[in-house]
């Protein structure tokens, strides 16, 4: 029979140590998670909601029986803290820790495995003890290139987020190299934050936030003030910046399915004009957001008459062509090809789409495909001198590529020949050594026989 006193800590019953040295880390202060620090952390910073944390842990019952251990698997465990991905006790306990800290957590059933327990491992309604080591943590990446990193200081309410085109009211505080350069309340339309001097990264983060949320956004230059910087804020080019953003309220825009076709067509005209303004100002990422709205609204629409069908096709062609041009500027050549393909599906002889796709393919070193596109352009418009010049470039590149291949293969074959010659030479030497060795042995044997044989 076991008791709650079987598990020892520093030679004393674990429950006694938690009672005398432990700290209640639960928000409700109901003693559901009691913490004892075994080793202090390296600095004062702690994980925030949504951070990706990596831990080592060992779980034991109060009887002292171990039921889980990451160290025995020789693999630490990672999760997004505060998101309900793990036991409630882990979310609470880990958010109280510092990097490098080791602690023990006494967890009541309602913060661990509940009244059901875990079959074959955790009896029903069991308190458990976890030893946790916080190895590292980092913010949540909101973009594939990790250009926007979010760390949530205060969790928002509900499950709704601002959508594209929503009206939002936020409080902003911007810092660069520790210096605060921006502090204000501002309202803007999601997708059009640039109109209010709000950087792209803040705009992009809106659809991930909830009302009342306060978060830190770590922005790389691409999502901040880019190569130009922000002279009015005394921020130079290519600077990382940090914004603390509080979403105070928002009004969602109508979703595509909530609008009828005439409304979409009316809005498409406004959005196209906004996208063109951004493009002319060199704000290509902001322009992309506008043109993509048109595609989202109209890509599944057919129209009820010839007039509507023509308007839909006109907007779709323009949106995809403009997206291709934006992606050429941002050097996202795969996106250029994809958008040009969409145009060619609607209009196989579209000169601009063929030319831009050729440009993207040329920049991707797909010389033959690029030349086919430029040749197609000349079939559509024989007077297009730019396409003719690009064909010459493609021909030169193809020739250069073939010459390079010939050199590469020549070197390769030369290396193969040298290696084969070396192998043959080594084999000859080995064979000669073997023959010489055999001849030597034969001579020795003959001499021995002549010495050991009868004298005449």
TrEMBL record:
Domain PPIase FKBP-type: 50-138, 165-251
UniProt keyword annotations, A-Z: Chaperone, Isomerase, Repeat, Rotamase, TPR repeat
Single GO MF annotation: peptidyl-prolyl cis-trans isomerase activity
Catalytic reaction list: [protein]-peptidylproline (omega=180) = [protein]-peptidylproline (omega=0)
Coiled coil: none
Region span, Disordered: 424-456
SUPFAM superfamilies: FKBP-like (SSF54534), TPR-like (SSF48452)
TPR repeat feature ranges: 351-384
Top-level class of the enzyme under EC nomenclature: isomerase
EC number per UniProt: 5.2.1.8
Pfam families in alphabetical order: FKBP_C
InterPro entries according to UniProt: FKBP4/5/8-like, PPIase_dom_sf, PPIase_FKBP_dom, TPR-like_helical_dom_sf, TPR_rpt
UniProt-recorded name of the protein: peptidylprolyl isomerase
Organism in which the protein naturally occurs: Dissostichus mawsoni (Antarctic cod)
């Amino acid at each position: 029979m076991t008791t709650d006193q079987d598990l020892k800590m520093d030679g004393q019953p674990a429950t006694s140590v938690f009672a005398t040295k432990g700290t209640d880390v639960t928000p409700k202060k109901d003693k559901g998670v009691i913490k004892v620090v075994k080793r202090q952390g390296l600095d004062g910073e702690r994980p925030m909601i949504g951070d990706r944390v990596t831990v080592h842990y060992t779980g034991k019952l109060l009887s002292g029986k171990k039921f889980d251990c990451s160290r025995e698997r020789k693999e630490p465990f990672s999760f997004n803290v505060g998101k309900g991905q793990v036991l409630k006790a882990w979310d609470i306990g880990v958010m109280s820790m510092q990097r490098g800290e080791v602690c023990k957590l006494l967890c009541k059933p309602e913060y661990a495995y509940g009244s059901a327990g875990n079959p074959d491992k955790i009896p029903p309604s069991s308190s458990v003890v976890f030893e946790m080591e916080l190895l590292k943590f980092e913010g949540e990446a909101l973009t594939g290139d990790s250009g926007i990193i979010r760390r949530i200081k205060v969790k928002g309410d509900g499950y709704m987020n601002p959508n594209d085109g929503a009206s939002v009211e936020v409080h902003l505080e911007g810092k660069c190299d520790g210096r605060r350069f921006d502090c204000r309340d501002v309202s803007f339309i999601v997708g059009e934050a640039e109109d209010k001097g709000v950087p792209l990264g803040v705009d992009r983060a809106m659809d991930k936030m909830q009302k009342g949320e306060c978060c830190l956004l770590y922005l790389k230059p691409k999502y901040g003030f880019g190569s130009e910087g922000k002279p009015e804020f005394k921020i130079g080019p290519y600077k990382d910046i940090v914004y603390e953003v509080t979403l105070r309220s928002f009004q969602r825009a109508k979703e595509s399915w909530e609008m009828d076709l005439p409304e979409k067509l009316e809005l498409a005209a406004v959005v196209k004009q906004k996208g063109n303004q951004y493009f002319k100002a060199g704000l290509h990422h902001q322009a992309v957001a506008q043109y993509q709205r048109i595609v989202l609204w109209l890509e599944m629409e057919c129209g009820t008459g010839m007039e509507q069908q023509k308007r839909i096709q006109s907007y779709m062609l323009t949106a995809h062509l403009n997206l291709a041009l934006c992606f050429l500027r941002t050097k996202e050549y795969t996106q250029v090809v994809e958008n040009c393909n969409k145009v060619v599906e609607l209009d196989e002889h579209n000169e601009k789409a063929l030319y831009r796709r050729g440009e993207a393919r040329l920049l991707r070193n797909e010389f033959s495909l690029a030349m086919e596109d430029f040749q197609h352009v000349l079939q559509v418009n024989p007077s297009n001198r730019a396409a003719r010049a690009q064909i010459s470039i493609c021909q030169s590149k193809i020739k250069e590529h073939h010459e390079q291949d010939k050199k590469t293969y020549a070197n390769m074959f030369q290396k193969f020949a040298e290696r084969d010659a070396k192998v043959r030479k080594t084999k000859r030497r080995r064979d000669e050594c073997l023959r010489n060795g055999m001849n030597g042995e034969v001579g020795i044997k003959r001499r021995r026989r002549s010495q050991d044989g009868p004298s005449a």
